[in-house]
Amino acid sequence: xxxxxxxxxxxxxxxxxxxxxxxxxxxxxxxxxxxxxxxxxxxxxxxxxxxxxxxxxxxxxxxxxxxxxxxxxxxxxxxxxxxxxxxxxxxxxxxxxxxxxxxxxxxxxxxxxxxxxxxxxxxxxxxxxxxxxxxxxxxxxxxxxxxxxxxxxxxxxxxxxxxxxxxxxxxxxxxxxxxxxxxxxxxxxxxxxxxxxxxxxxxxxxxxxxxxxxxxxxxxxxxxxxxxxxxxxxxxxxxxxxxxxxxxxxxxxxxxxxxxxxxxxxxxxxxxxxxxxxxxxxxxxxxxxxxxxxxxxxxxxxxxxxxxxxxxxxxxxxxxxxxxxxxxxxxxxxx
Length: 335
Known about the structure:
The chain is α/β, with parallel strands linked by helices. It contains ten helices and eight strands. The chain has helices at about 50-60, 60-65, 85-90, 125-130, 135-150, 155-160, 180-190, 210-220, 230-265, 275-320; strands at about 15-20, 25-30, 35, 40-45, 95, 105, 110-115, 205. Helix 5 packs across helix 7 and helix 9 (about 230-265) runs antiparallel to helix 10.
């Protein structure tokens, strides 16, 4: 995988040069202003920690391990990424993160997005990256490719440039980067197939609640990522369904108790025969309604779960056969 995804003419950062350093290649700054990695002033280009830094910033080991099961978490399609302008339409707030494993992970009304660093816009850096392990190359290519889906329109580009986000650099070190220049650059990554990216990037957006659930089953961890750093919200997620079940059982038992209490009275003369009959009928009605509601809920959840699995497996089959059908009417719940 030694081929750079884009030509030198379309690079958006010219602050790096690549020179021979004995039997290896080394990065240097072309502007001579400093010797640090563009966009990361704490990492020196001559530091032995450079490779470790790039590895840490772009590797997703846990998600790669979970990849065979991510079809249970999200629609199994790498293009399943909403543009930035559409995130607001889905009621989501963009939260900037630097952890690569949280990139495009969403949690109810927020989605985590890792900014595109300056050095990944440099042709020289990509030639240097071509000398690194293939797994790292796949991770970086997959990460940059996500921006071909996040930034599809000029409106997306303007959102990405907002001061509170700064998801993409606004200049190349000398001149301002226009939407037209960025579009030419990112278009090269839109052509890249899944065979050139790591397993995590065979998928797009991932739901955090399901990631946390399957992490407890498939990885030696309690959770994939804590939103709340306290026990109360975590325990609340566990005890809420348990309390719901307890409430259902309590209603059923109370109704059964009323029925048993009324039964001997019905066989004897009593002062309120109508009330006794009403109590008996109500206890039976409550039993039937509670059982019906519980059964309906259980059947609905089962149908949705089976539909999600069927939908995901269908998409996987289409991907293998090279087909892309419009399944909007069969939209999965694992969006």
